[in-house]
Design a protein that fits this description.
It is found in: Cell outer membrane. By secondary structure, the chain is mainly alpha-helical. The protein has 10 helices and 7 strands. A hairpin with a 2-residue loop joins strand 4 and strand 5.
Amino acid sequence: MQYSMNDGTQNGNCNWSYGLIVPNIPGVTDGGCDFYKPSQNLVNAFRTDKNGHPLFDAFNAQDVDVKRDYTDPRLYLTVGMPGMPYEFNKNYMMDKSIAWSRSNGLYGYYVTLKHNVDPDCEYLIKGSWWGSPMNRIVLRYADVLLMRAEALVQLNDGRLGEAVNLVNELRNRARKSTRMIADYEAEYGVHFNVQPYNGSYTQSQVLEIVKFERRVELAMESERFFDLVRWGEAEQTLNQYYAAEADNCNIYTSASFTKNKNEYLPIPFAQLSASNGHYIQNCGNW
């Protein structure tokens, strides 16, 4: 979806919807809304082993330490974190203060990088509500590759190797696409390690590879929930997530996901009333 500014309109046809995602930026914003924050669980998912592969079952056993652990470099293109420059601009070094992260004791210290731009970008419209000409991507080529890989795995007709090769296209690109963070290892002591898969794998193993690749490649792109629903894994994964993440964010203490209900949204009361009894509420009471 194409956005613009300086196009002859009063405020430009900017992407105003991302304005709510701008974090607090000391000396720049007057307390950004800072919505849509990455979780600790997501950050941990970028941890890799010595072979540059994900820790599929153990990634969340402990919180990642970026100066100790190997990490997929896509982490630093996805998540802003204390001790790192915000949007790759070293004039804006993030820390753990309230000046950077809204209600950090409740929501944590991480911010999304995929939906924001450099605060010094000349194309920003600043004020009480920020707008930028950042385009909204509806469907990425990476998503197309991963959808094909998943289909090949589910078909299980002898093309598992092709599915792995599609995943490796993304991992090889991730390994080489580090220009914006080229000095992070030297400057901040992090350890990049993402490598392609080169073994022989069963159908279940390749499916796990594809699923995990979707998580890290499409992180913060609003695909995760729908993937979990499609795989029939939403209830187990989300309830485990709520239980573990409650230690970092107490709003999850009473959260739960109910199968065959929370995959859907309730029909608004006004619409139910206007239907004169023809509409029935989704999945019982809300």
